[in-house]
Design brief:
The chain is an alpha+beta fold. The chain is 17% helix and 37% strand. The strands form four sheets. Strands 6, 8, 9, 10, 12, 15, 16, 17, 19 and 20 form a ten-stranded antiparallel β-sheet that branches. The chain has a five-stranded antiparallel β-sheet with strand order 7-11-18-13-14, with no helix packed on it. It has a three-stranded antiparallel β-sheet with strand order 2-4-3. A hairpin with a 4-residue loop joins strand 3 and strand 4. It starts with a strand and ends with a strand.
Length: 309
């Protein structure tokens, strides 16, 4: 059985080290490793801890990417189910990590550098300095100033980005494609219970749909600028979509059978990555995409090509 492990450079991922530097959080991780998945109340009962203590520590673990959460229907309302993300965490300095990794080609795409778009209102674009164009006017998405975007949102439609296929240029065989971005749903104001189905395609092939559970506004995003109103979307979840020979995965969980063979990357000069909320989505709850200067991660849309050694 394959194991999912995280290799951490302590100079780059202090958030992971801080998340692990707590006996309570270690107990939670151990419990989730043995029990597979649990809600916060069950974790509190099992560890004989106050619910508030468990909730605070679960937020820290999730922010560091050490657990993931899903919302499920419960007898009374919804419940948040927690899953362990990794089987092992290895702490190594960068010089030691390099030999463990397959060669990797990474491209960071600024949020506003999409090559094609079709969106419906409510919608909008922000830079770290203010609103770009006019709110709820889809034509604003054609404004040249969109290149400064740190946050975009829309109800239905898509944005498409064109990444160079640098593995083809260097004549390397791709073993995995990974797309990393921070996402939430979109509702006027915010709501933690507002599901939305987000579909990602590569070169016209849908690799899978993932459901975000809400539009998060319970606290200001770590990088969200102070001028952005608190009642607006504050942060999302950092999701890693990964396509391998075995299918497509989001944070290690398989979501579709679409594999590298289906993408046939060796015959494409570029990778057209489309991020969409489809008109026929079961949960058409809109989308927020967070880029640099907004949300909790301060990153562009990242495409990684892992190649054979």
């Amino acid at each position: 059985m394959s194991r999912n492990f995280l290799v951490v450079d302590p100079e780059q991922r202090l958030d992971v080290l801080k998340a692990l530097a707590s006996p309570i959080r270690i107990q939670i991780l151990k419990l989730l490793r043995t029990q597979s998945a649990m809600n916060g109340s069950d974790i509190a009962d099992k560890l004989e801890l106050p619910q508030s203590t468990v909730s605070t520590n679960l937020q820290i673990l999730e922010a560091a990417g050490l657990i993931r959460t899903d919302t499920q229907k419960a007898r009374k309302g919804n419940q948040k189910i927690c899953h362990s993300t990794f089987d092992e965490v290895l702490v190594m300095f960068d010089d030691d990590i390099a030999p463990l990794r397959s060669p990797m080609i990474e491209v960071a795409m600024p949020l506003g550098l999409y090559t094609s778009c079709e969106v419906s209102a409510p919608c909008g674009i922000c830079s770290v300095d203010g609103i770009i164009g006019m709110l709820d006017v889809p034509d604003t998405f054609l404004e040249p100033d969109r290149m400064k975007a740190g946050l975009v949102w829309f109800t239905q439609g898509y944005l498409e980005y064109k990444f160079p296929n640098n593995a083809r240029l260097s004549q390397h065989t791709v073993e995995a494609v990974e797309i990393s971005l921070e996402l939430s749903s979109e509702v006027p104001g915010t709501s933690a219970d507002w599901p939305s189905d987000i579909t990602i395609s590569i070169n016209g092939i849908e690799i899978g749909t993932w459901m975000t559970t809400g539009d998060f506004g319970d606290k200001r995003g770590v990088y969200t600028p102070s001028w952005w109103k608190l009642k607006g979307s504050q942060y999302g979840k950092l999701k890693n979509w990964r396509v391998t020979k075995d299918g497509t995965f989001v944070d290690g969980m398989k979501i579709s059978p679409v594999s590298l063979i289906d993408l046939d990357l060796s015959n494409h000069h570029s990778l057209r990555v489309r991020i969409a909320v489809k008109p026929d989505a079961k949960h058409p709850g809109g989308i927020n995409i967070f880029g640099r200067g907004f949300g909790n991660y301060d990153q562009d849309i990242i495409l990684r090509l892992y190649t054979a050694t």
